[in-house]
Design brief:
alpha/beta, two-stranded parallel ribbon, single chain
Length: 333
C-alpha cells in the first residue's frame, strides 16, 4: 500500500487530447480504454453533425470540450494542446485505432528522461492491422527522407500517438488562434494530416530527446477514414521540404531568438524529481494522476506558440537558387 501511495504521489498529471469529427459510435470504446485516473480528457470537436458531443458528455461528464478554430486534425491538436493543463500531454485518435491503454508506457518513457515519446508501429512490440502496403511503403520512404535531411533515426513518421512534457509545447509551433473564417481558406500550414510529420521535424529541430514507443494500430471501428494515400503523401513531402529548407533558414535568420530559447526549455524541478524516482512509480498498478498541488507549467499563451514557424518567408528572403525547386510547391490546398 505504501508503494502504491508513493507511485500515486509521484505519477504526473496526464492530459489526453482527442480530436473528433462525427465519432459518436467510436467514443464508447475509446473512453473505456482510458486509464481510470487520467488527470483530464479534452475533446476537440470539428463541428460534428452527429451525437459526438452528447455522447462525450454522457460518458465523460468531466471532459473538457473545445471547438476547433479552423478545420483539420492539426488545428484540432493545436486547440486541444492549448487547453491542456496537465504535466504531460498525450494525443490519441477518436476512431479507436490508437489504444489509450498504452498511455502509461508513453508516460514511463518520459519519466525515463525523454522529452517526447513517439509511437511507432514498425519496431518489435508494435504493429498495425490497418495500414495498407502502399501506405506502408510511402511511410517508409518519407521516413527515410526525414532521417536523411534531419539527422533523425525515426522508424515511423506518420503515426499520431504521441506524448510529451507540457513545457515543450512551444517547440511544436502551434497556432490555434488565427481565425480564417473571413477569407474562406479554412486552414493554415500544418492544419491537416501532415501534422504528425510537422511535429516530428520540429521536435528534432528543437533538439528534444525522443523515445520511440512500440504501439499497435487497430482498424477504425466505425465510419470512413478521410486519409488519401496519394494526396496526403504529397502534402507530407511538401511539409518535409518546407520545414527543412525554408522554415529552418527563416528561424536561423530571425533577429528574435526568444522562440528558439523557449524551444530548448530545461526540465522543471518537478520533472527532475519525477525522473529520479520513476522506478518507484513504474509499478503496473500506478494510477495516472498527481497530487494536484501545483501545475508543472503555466498554460501556454498565444505569444508562446512561435507563430513565425508556420509562416512562409517574405519575398526576397529566399535564395534565388531555391526558387525553381519550391516556387508554387508550398501553396496550401
Amino acid at each position: 500500500m505504501a508503494a502504491q501511495n508513493c507511485s500515486q504521489t509521484l505519477w504526473p498529471r496526464v492530459s489526453v487530447v482527442i480530436p473528433t469529427l462525427n465519432e459518436a459510435r467510436n467514443l464508447p470504446h475509446v473512453f473505456s480504454a482510458l486509464p481510470s485516473d487520467i488527470y483530464e480528457v479534452i475533446i476537440v470537436d470539428g463541428h460534428s453533425v452527429d451525437d459526438t458531443l452528447a455522447v462525450a458528455r454522457k460518458l465523460r461528464p468531466d471532459a473538457g470540450i473545445v471547438m476547433q478554430t479552423r478545420t483539420g486534425k492539426g488545428n484540432a491538436l493545436a486547440c486541444g494542446c492549448r487547453a491542456a493543463t496537465g504535466d504531460i500531454i498525450a494525443m490519441i485518435d477518436a476512431d479507436g485505432s490508437t489504444d489509450a491503454s498504452e498511455i502509461p508506457v508513453f508516460v514511463r518513457a518520459l519519466l525515463g528522461g525523454a522529452d517526447f515519446a513517439k509511437g511507432t508501429r514498425f519496431v518489435k512490440g508494435g504493429g498495425s492491422e490497418d495500414i495498407t502496403r502502399v501506405r506502408a511503403l510511402g511511410n517508409r520512404l518519407l521516413t527515410g527522407i526525414v532521417n536523411l535531411l534531419c539527422g533523425t533515426e525515426y522508424t515511423d513518421l506518420c503515426y499520431g500517438f504521441n506524448a510529451f512534457w507540457q513545457n515543450h509545447l512551444p517547440a511544436l509551433g502551434f497556432s490555434p488562434t488565427t481565425d480564417l473564417s473571413a477569407n474562406g481558406i479554412g486552414r493554415l500550414w500544418g492544419d491537416g494530416f501532415e501534422i504528425e510529420t510537422l511535429i516530428n521535424i520540429r521536435i528534432a529541430a528543437a533538439g528534444l530527446k525522443v523515445a520511440e514507443v512500440p504501439s499497435f494500430e487497430r482498424s477504425r471501428m466505425y465510419g470512413v477514414s478521410n486519409l488519401c494515400a496519394v494526396s496526403d503523401g504529397i502534402r507530407v513531402l511538401r511539409t518535409i521540404l518546407y520545414e527543412r529548407f525554408i522554415v529552418s533558414r527563416q528561424v536561423r535568420r530571425s533577429p528574435d531568438r526568444r522562440p528558439l530559447e523557449r524551444m530548448n526549455g530545461r526540465p522543471s524541478r518537478r520533472q527532475v524529481d519525477l525522473a529520479e524516482r520513476s522506478f518507484a512509480a513504474s509499478d503496473s498498478s500506478a494510477r495516472l494522476n498527481g497530487d494536484g498541488s501545483r501545475r508543472l507549467a503555466r498554460q501556454t499563451r498565444p505569444e508562446d506558440m512561435a507563430p513565425g514557424l508556420h509562416q512562409k518567408p517574405p519575398p526576397g528572403g529566399r535564395n534565388r537558387r531555391e526558387k525553381p525547386v519550391v516556387a508554387g510547391f508550398f501553396r496550401i490546398s
